[in-house]
Amino acid sequence: MLAKTILALGALASFAEQTIALPSDYHVSIVRDEVDVTAKIEVNTGKDHSTDGAPAEVLEALATRGEGNGNDTSIGSMPFSKRGLAYNDAGMANALGGACKKCGWGWNWDQTPNGLDGRYSFVPMLWGDRPVHTNRWAANAQKAIQNGAKAFLSFNEPDNGGQSNMSPQAAAEAHIKYMNPYAGKVKIGAPSITNSGASNQGVNWLNAFFKACNGRCRVDFCPVHWYSDAQWADTLITHINSASKACSGKPVWLTEFAPTGGDVNGFLRKMLPKLDALGSLDAYSYFMVAQGKLMSGSRSLSSSGQLYATL
């Protein structure tokens, strides 16, 4: 029988269609729609495959195809480049962004841009499920859509007791209540997870979240965070791949990442090209646009900031 799978990938190509030959007699037709920036993948084969995610051969082929604007993998399936600005001070973000031709979006752990330049696509976040966040969400979410927002971020590190600190079950119910209403209007992210390997954290928490959702949560991509020593840089790619699998092959956003020790500039030189080339990754933002990190002053870039802006 025919199996049909919906995945978000690729870049804008106005109703363009492309056919790809794949192993094991798979035939994939990709149709990109510039309106909602999604791609429909129809997998035609004589075998019966689950529609929860594309067959492994399909995912592997797509991951190695260099999806993006032609061969430019620095642009994922969103209508902005992958590289983003994680900030608290919009003035700093605008200063770094002015030197960063690849920077196309920004977020600030909050619901309003607070001065971020309009050339960047602002992505609001519903940080947690407490009233201080939820009471203002509906109005801010609607305003963001009116201002052209393309994506929303769900809860911040619910798997971390020091952040939004939510069980998978509580997060699933809150996601359904507060995020599902915007399905079809913007791309919706799952709750952002850490890279902890503990049984109730990281990708394990994400798997439990989807189990609690039981198909009811509207999710278009899965955001992840990564912190470790620079010598373990390659585990960043492993973490992204694990999250992609948990997310049924949907795109991953790396919304926070930084080495906790070692050569930061060497880390950026090594990893930024890999992140740009990674087909399963739609967006990333280094932690963060702030003094002592990507900035050396209120409007001046650090050496790491200069690398992030120009590499």
UniProtKB/TrEMBL annotation:
Any idea which UniProt keywords this protein has?
A: Hydrolase, Signal
Task: Please give the Gene Ontology molecular function terms for this protein.
Answer: hydrolase activity
The stretch of residues making up the signal peptide is 1-21
Q: Name one Pfam family in it.
A: Glyco_hydro_cc
Which parts of the sequence belong to the Asl1-like glycosyl hydrolase catalytic domain? 84-308
Q: Which GO terms describe its biological process?
A: fungal-type cell wall polysaccharide metabolic process
Indicate what this protein is called per its UniProt record. Glycoside hydrolase
> What species does this protein belong to?
Purpureocillium lilacinum (Paecilomyces lilacinus)
> What lineage is on file?
Eukaryota, Fungi, Dikarya, Ascomycota, Pezizomycotina
